[in-house]
Amino acid sequence: MARSFKTLDDIGDLTGKRVLVREDLNVPMADGKVSDDTRLRAAVPTVSELSDRGAIVLVLAHFGRPKVPSPEHSTAQLTQPFSDVLGRSVRYIDWEGGAEAAALLQPGDVALLENTRFFGGEEKNDPATVDRFAALGDLYVNDAFSAAHRAHASTEGLAHKLPAFAGRQMEAELDALEKALGAPEHPVAAVVGGAKVSTKLDVLKHLVGRVDHLIIGGGMANTFLAARGVDVGKSLAEHDLVPTAEAIFDAAEKANCTIHLPYDVVVSKEFAANPPSLRTCNVHEVAADEMILDVGPAATEALGDVLKTCRTLVWNGPLGAFETPPFDAATMALARTAAALTREGSLVSVAGGGDTVAALNQAGVSGDMTFVSTAGGAFLEWMEGKELPGVAALSA
């Protein structure tokens, strides 16, 4: 695959070279401990490879949204958890005296620098902050796709100051996204779910011109059903966006994109786990006091049949209120179908976004998809067709 960016394979001898590596280590904490180390583990391939190749590895990362420097937002508390997953020692370097401390490191050493957001200039992409970061390194590696939609000093500015390369995680992400929407094998299906059309408007508008099948689920499907004249009862729907939904239908028709909406649905009078009023019905039979909470079994099976005709799938958002059983049934079933098709080699499947990752984990199929992106905002902006500053800078 021809790439517009350089990777670690394009770097020669690294012995003694100081490499600034931007990682996303913004992990959740509970009671002073890391509660989910997914992001720490994702950084291991790049950091380990650079260290093994004799580089002096200086890791840049933000942690939380600090207004001012504070111990609770210090990356110092991540050094031991990161060291544990990395299987090698990780030093902590504060910005005070950082250059002097970095100068003492030896080839193969790994150090985690203090929170990049302790500088007001990080988020403003301030040239003085970029220069301060750049003074510590010889090369720059961006391995944080999830922060690539932000033009910050450590995600974008540095790529213009030092020779810039994509880390292994970034490389895998960009390769997967290219296969999914950049130059995909058709037919292409997109599953877009979630509560509100308003949060995914740009995604839907972009996708109708790029995919052959657009499967709309979640609360946003109700708005599209309303645009088709369906009475959705008490269901979550944005009735003020019906004209927008109609415009998306028109755009899809012009682009030969088929929009798939549920024709049978799971409804209830209350939103609770396994409610007594639960029933499955045709979309035209939803009562005034009922709400649609999931796609019905017949429509789910039909959607599975659609995927069987496709070569590529991109997925963002659940089909129903998957956190509350039994309204996870459609999402689980379609996820398992997608996973089975991927396993047998007939489908390239790329999924991303927090709820989507949680749903795929719940279905037990995350490991079977071609690629699962943990990036939230960056994945969504990519699906909207927007240029991501951190990625564009690597191609400059």
Automatic annotation (TrEMBL):
Pfam family example for this protein?
PGK
Main location per UniProt? Answer: cytoplasm
Query: Per the record's keyword annotation, is Metal-binding included, yes or no?
Result: no
InterPro entries, per the entry: Phosphoglycerate_kinase, Phosphoglycerate_kinase_CS, Phosphoglycerate_kinase_N, Phosphoglycerate_kinase_sf
Give the residues the record marks as binding substrate: D24, L25, N26, R39, H62, F63, G64, R65, R117, R150
Question: Top EC class per UniProt?
Answer: transferase
Q: Which HAMAP family match?
A: Phosphoglyc_kinase
**Subunit record text:** Monomer.
Query: Which family is annotated?
Result: Belongs to the phosphoglycerate kinase family.
What this protein is called in its record is Phosphoglycerate kinase
Q: Which organism is it from?
A: Sphingomonas yantingensis
Q: Which gene encodes it?
A: pgk
